[in-house]
Amino acid sequence: MSIYYLKHNKIGDLSGGQQQRVLLARAMVSNPKLLILDEPTSALDPKVRSEFFALIKSINEKNNTSIILVSHDLGSIMKCSKKIMLLDRELIYYGSTEEFSIDESFEDFDHFGINSEVHND
After folding, report:
1. How many CB atoms are located within 10 Å of the residue 115 CB?
2. Where are the domains of the chain?
3. Which segments in the chain show pLDDT lower than 50?
4. Which residue from 20, 81, 103, 104 has the least number of CB within 10 angstroms?
5. Tens of pLDDT along 34-69?
6. In this structure, are residues 116 and 109 in contact, taking their beta carbons and an 8 Å threshold?
7. The pTM is what?
8. b vs e for 31-65, b when ≥16 Cβ sit within 10 Å of the residue's Cβ?
9. Could you tell me if 65 and 32 are in contact, meaning their C-beta atoms sit under 8 angstroms apart?
10. What would the DSSP string read from start to end of the chain?
11. CA–CA dist 6, 21 (Å, integer)
12. Are the C-beta atoms of residues 58 and 89 closer than 8 Å to each other?
């Protein structure tokens, strides 16, 4: 996670991205089977946000850790998730990101009030 150099810093002196990585490392010490993350990237700039989502994907794949992540950043979620659940006071969609990305009924996300830029690389 590239945080060893932070070991002598106080948590309050760290940037938002550094704090998120430190807290994630702390959670990973016990080798959990499940991580629940609520808006972990909300205060991060786009570059750090992208790095954080890549880290989450790596943890899922390498450690076989299931991750439940709440976010309004659908574009980033689509890049690092196998399944998504879309809620708007009720269940709108639950299934694979691949099926969601090709379902024409979800082409316009603006009425959900979420980041609607989805790019399939």
Report:
1. 14
2. 4-112
3. 111, 115-121
4. 104
5. 999 999 888 888 888 888 899 899 999 999 999 999
6. yes
7. 0.74
8. eeeebebeebbeebeeebbebbbebbeebbeeeeb
9. yes
10. ---GGGTTS-GGGS-HHHHHHHHHHHHHTT--SEEEEESTTTTS-HHHHHHHHHHHHHHHHHH--EEEEE-SBHHHHHHH-SEEEEESSSEEEEEEHHHHHH-GGGS--GGGTSB------
11. 10
12. no
Strand partners, 73: 115
Q: Decide: 44 and 9 in contact? Cβ < 8 Å.
A: no
Tokens standing for residue 103: 């379902």
CA gap 81, 72 in Å, rounded:
14
Best CATH choice for the domain 4-112 from the list 3.40.50.300, 3.20.20.370, 3.10.20.310, 1.20.1730.10 = 3.40.50.300
